[in-house]
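Before the break, one more example. Copy the sequence into your notebook; we will annotate it together after we see the structure.
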Amino acid sequence: MLLGKLANRDNDYLYYRVPIPPEHIVEKQLLNEAMVYLSDGRAISPKQRAKAYALLRDISAYTGHHPEELKEYFKYSLISRTACPDFSLSDCEMTVATQYIELLIEFCLEWSVPCQDSLLESAPDIGKYLYLCLYHKKCCICGQKADVHHHDRVGIGRNRREIAHIGMHLQALCRKHHNEAHLGQKSFDQKYYVFGVAADELLVKKLNLGKGR
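Here is what the structure looks like once it is written out:
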């Protein structure tokens, strides 16, 4: 009997808790549940593989660690985070490759790693990328240090510290791109293929935004 699907922001896999029949419970370990991983059946694409290795080279140049060493480090970081099976970038599933690339991008944003290619263009999921840019306060266009841009108009005379930010759409933009967005939000979004991200409690707390009254 399937007991439920596990899901969170860092995990795109499908997992189910499955009860283990009493006669199969491992002796002395008191295990009564197992996790079943559902394969998506699609193999990593050449484009995904190229993106992963390009990011690994960028991180290698920044940290001084060898790309192969980093490849293994991030592989086991992903396994630890998602409990996915062991994999290789030569033939892993597309979903695994997507999560691996997202992990590399998150590291680059957190540690300000200079990248040869645009992280915006490398991101498999633009929504997740824009969220991470806000979380780490890095411009979603160029990767520089960013301010929080209110995609939703705040209005003249309103105190931003008293606005309820949860649910408000935001963007992380450097001063240059922040000014550009103010010249025309719609044209800015269309030019860079970006959009505002709805703030949740985690972002509001992380960015020290006003919670409203």
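Confidence is low (pLDDT under 50) at residues 1-14. The beta strands are 15-19, 33-37, 147-150, 169-173, 197-198. Try to locate both features in your own notes.
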